[in-house]
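PROTOCOL LOG
Step 1. Enter all chains and additional molecules of the complex.
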Amino acid sequence: MGKYILKRIFYMLLTFYVVITLTFLSMKLLPGTPFQNAQKLTPTQLNTLKHYYGLDQPVIVQYGKYIWNFIHGDLGTSFQFGNTPVTSLLFQQFPVSLDLGIEAMIIGTIIGILLGIVAGLHHGKTTDWSAMILATFGFSIPSFIFAGILQYCLGVLVQIFPVAGWGGPMTHVLPVTSLAVGVLAEVTIFMRTEMVEVLNQDYIVTAQAKGLTRSAVVFKHAVRNALIPVVTILGPMTAAIITGSVVIEGIFGIPGIGKQFVSSIITNDYPMIMGTTELYSGLFILTILIVDILYGVIDPRIRISGGHS
Amino acid sequence: MEKLLEIQNLNVQFDIFGAHVQAVRGVDLELNIGETLAIVGESGSGKSVTSKAIMGLNPMPPGKVTGGKILYNGQDLAHASDKQMQKIRGKEISMIFQDPMTALNPTMKIGKQIMEGLIKHQNLNKHDARARAIELLSLVGIPNPDKRVEEYPHQFSGGMRQRVVIAIALACNPKILIADEPTTALDVTIQAQILDLMRDIQKKTGTAIILITHDLGVVANLANRVAVMYGGKIVETGTLDEIFYHSKHPYTWGLLSSMPRLHAKTDKLLAIPGTPPDLSDPPKGCPFAPRCPYAMKVCQDHMPDYTKVTDTQKTACWLLDSRAPKVEPPKTVVVGGN
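Step 2. Run joint prediction.
Step 3. Record the structure below.
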């Protein structure tokens, strides 16, 4: 197991390096400069600015410098925010996105798994169909539509929750719900399919033949096996939800990092583009590792083959 | 001999896509204490459904028992509630399945899978149940049982897994062990080992065995009595010798003829021509009539009653009627060795 994780960490670092390199190079292909009103500047002024920020050097030199600084924990300073270090901006805004994403994931996953189990147990019956219709709606309608509907119904018509903002628990309800609906729908559909599949397996009959109660058969034998494939989709989904809440953050005026990512690209804020990309990809790679380890915890077959490789 | 289990006129039907498949049509069977009863027949003859009906393990719906009784200790298992059946399953009657590769939960340790039944039926605590699980593993011939009890199914070979399945079935000393094609999915050498194990265990525990199979070699190896099923009905029952040497039913002759032989004069494998009847629209008469080389007009329209050939042998065939022409079994029915 230890050897397996070490090997995985090596590949993770390699992936991370490739992501940094590709982002840096493609970022330099973006048209325009980081400077506002660049067209009003004289060429001399522009060159002075470029020289000041080191942007007049060949791309390969800039790249080498960036990597060198990165290894030393220096991600540069943002062009947009008066030379504030990128790291401090990330540390300030990222926890908000993380909070929002994780709350949505937890709620969506738990309800989704429960709903999937119930639907799977009632395969082909009304409960199953209703759960599937709801899940299909949740899956196909984008989160921002839900956000709008929720804001109007529960924020304007019946004023229970604040329409926007991020602070006390009440402000979390609407954005987290809008994000969680998609997660819930996807997990439900997946879990239901797996339950139906697992309940048809021979070992379920073996469990029944031991005289176990229905609930023991379902929870001790079926659910754990049905969870294995569901765990696989949770990894990329967590990363996608945490990083992909841009629109929801925009709608609810949440000071998260999603908005930052978009604006840094529009303004050619090179250090900020790199910083957010590194954060996103790092998070993504890390979640996938966690999921793979979790996978081994649930499925003993993976644990063994991983240990020997 | 004392009756342990009695099946009376059992009917099981499956409602699938508007059709009513009558998988079991009026089966009468009895099982005596300590004996091995083999139910033989080709795929779709209703032998598995009959055995699952005893355990109440047919999926319902679409399956349902439409008639008859399964009497065990004065209790009718065919109409028992799920809760009542949970007390029977694993404790009084347990089951060994066909495919050991899929019959064990891949994410649960072997020991825990054996312990579950013990904890449920014998109220053992975890420690005692574990000790008993190790004891059972060594009973079924698994080396290093105290180590292997902590392992997962994928760490066992097919034959070893079948031994585990048998250990699970034996956990609570059941009175009846139903073995549904226990050797079909195994290599021939492993088959012999598993059959030896089952015989050995029966000697030690006195469990009665219902053996479901289409392999007459397995039957010859293990059974005391044989019931031949065809088209959802039992067409002939008798002791092992009666079925192998003095069978009266053309279907039994067909089964015996199609057994491959080592010293056969031809290298052709004999088969019974035709296919089994469609049980969603079962024939009025004898189900074997369309494939039977001796079929008469009466066979098409009327199901024959059982004729008592001896005290232990019963055959349902019109050929045994006094008005029927005398027919000798074909030369191909020769049982070589035992």
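Step 4. Note key features.
Chain A has three domains: 1-31+267-309, 41-73, 94-255.
Residues 160 and 269 of chain A are 39 Å apart (CA to CA).
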